[in-house]
Design brief:
InterPro entries: AAA+_ATPase, ABC_transp_ATP-bind, ABC_transporter-like_ATP-bd, ABC_transporter-like_CS, Oligopep_ABC_C, P-loop_NTPase. Belongs to the ABC transporter superfamily. This is ABC transporter ATP-binding protein. Residues 17-258 form the ABC transporter domain. The chain is of the alpha/beta class. It folds into two domains: 42-68 and 81-225, Rossmann fold, CATH 3.40.50.300; 250-343, no CATH class. The chain is 30% helix and 22% strand. The strands form two sheets. The protein has a seven-stranded mixed beta sheet, with helices on both faces. The longest helix has 18 residues, at 190-207. The chain is globular, with a radius of gyration of 21 Å. The structure holds adenosine-5'-triphosphate, iron/sulfur cluster (SF4) and magnesium ion. The site of iron/sulfur cluster (SF4) has 12 residues, from loops.
């Protein structure tokens, strides 16, 4: 495996929960991200999946420094970037760029495409001297499959897929090494999703990019990711290669998510087991003791309320080298094939 380019350890984001208008009093906190660990290797795509509200976007925002973590470290090439300021921070930020979910709202409607894609050069003039920017932007338009002559058009003159290409071109303007893509295709039609995913794959090879790819659609994540992390209530529950997670999941939460993936083949659909997730996701202001998944877990026992399972290779798989031997935060981890392998590919 290539060397780590990004190492996230114990990443936490708690938002204070206050009452009162004049005299604000903190009465608790929203534990949006509550101890996340993962490593991104150079040139790979790490997918992050999980239900709405589990903290995916908050992780993304901390990675690109749109928000400061409450605790934890983010190491970029071995250096903790959460402590950087000034010039050093600016230099690192250039290398980690974000592509946002909604191409309809994330592009300023009053700016031309040329100004949108070239905006990062205002902050980093060292990357492209003023006289050279138009040419660079046209080059970027071409790279993402758009006509360079569109440089003076406005966002509303483009389709959703084209707008996301503009968002990607903007993300590439500073020649970053890492792209954090937060649900980059979720707002697009299914037919357009594949085109944007293919574009991202091509760009990854062309520019040697490493991706964090956030989505809630498990099939899309499998298609693009080398490894996948499954998040629940602010933490990663299970992480491994796509084969480990999809074909050999050991965590009940992953198994439940996979059991809900639509299966096109009617016969396979009839034979597969549906695991129903009990109840609703608990509030991130009030996280269950012990294993945070226990209130919805079909396997929960008494011990699960008392002990916090670590994200590590479960003891029973430690001596094996098979695909079940990957990190899973469950006290009673068991391998269970939920979906026939070909169904999520
Ligand atoms: N600025 C904020 N102040 C208070 N709570 C917040 C703030 N931002 C996010 N949260 C809460 O933190 C939790 C995680 O939110 P986040 O947007 O990261 O989830 P997500 O996994 O990206 O969800 P989705 O799939 O819907 O995009 C949610 O409960 C959300 O309400
Ligand atoms: S530790 Fe217990 S509650 Fe948590 S996932 Fe495992 S079996 Fe379920
Ligand atoms: Mg989100």
């Amino acid at each position: 495996m290539a060397e780590p380019i990004l190492e996230v350890r114990g990443l936490v984001k708690h938002y204070p929960l206050t009452t009162g208008v004049l005299f604000k009093k903190q009465v608790g906190s929203v534990k949006a991200v509550d101890g996340v660990d993962f490593t991104l290797h150079r040139g790979e795509t790490l997918g992050i999946v999980g239900e709405s509200g589990c903290g995916k976007s908050t992780v993304a925002r901390m990675l690109v420094n749109l928000e400061k973590p409450t605790a934890g470290v983010i190491r970029y090439k071995g250096e903790d970037i959460t402590q950087l300021t000034g010039k050093a921070l600016k230099a690192v930020r250039r290398n980690i760029q974000m592509v946002f979910q909604d191409p309809y709202t994330s592009l300023n409607p009053r700016m031309t495409v040329g100004d949108i894609i070239g905006e990062p050069y205002e902050i980093h003039p060292e990357v492209a001297p003023k006289g050279d920017r138009g040419r660079r932007v046209q080059e970027l338009l071409e790279v993402v499959g758009l006509n360079p002559e569109y440089i003076n058009r406005y966002p509303h003159q483009f389709s959703g897929g084209q707008r996301q290409r503009i968002g990607i071109a903007r993300g590439l303007a500073l020649r970053p090494e890492i792209i954090v893509a937060d649900e980059p295709v979720s707002a697009l039609d299914v037919s357009v999703q594949a085109q944007v995913i293919n574009l991202m794959e091509r760009l990854q090879n062309e520019f040697d990019l490493s991706y964090i790819f956030i989505a809630h659609d498990l099939s899309i994540v499998r298609h693009i990711s080398d490894r996948v992390g499954v998040m629940y209530l602010g933490r990663i529950m299970e992480i491994g290669t796509d084969e480990e997670i999809y074909d050999h999941p050991t965590h009940p939460y992953t198994q439940a998510l996979l059991s809900a993936v639509p299966v096109p083949d009617p016969e396979a659909r009839e034979h597969r087991e549906r695991i129903i997730l009990a109840g609703d996701v608990p509030s991130p202001t009030n996280i269950p003791s012990g294993c945070r998944f226990r209130t919805r877990c079909f396997k929960a026992r008494e011990r699960c309320a008392l002990e916090v399972p670590a994200l590590a290779v479960p003891a029973e798989f430690r001596l094996t080298t098979g695909p079940a031997a990957h990190d899973s935060a469950c006290l009673f981890a068991e391998e269970k094939q939920v979906v026939p392998p070909e169904e999520t590919r």
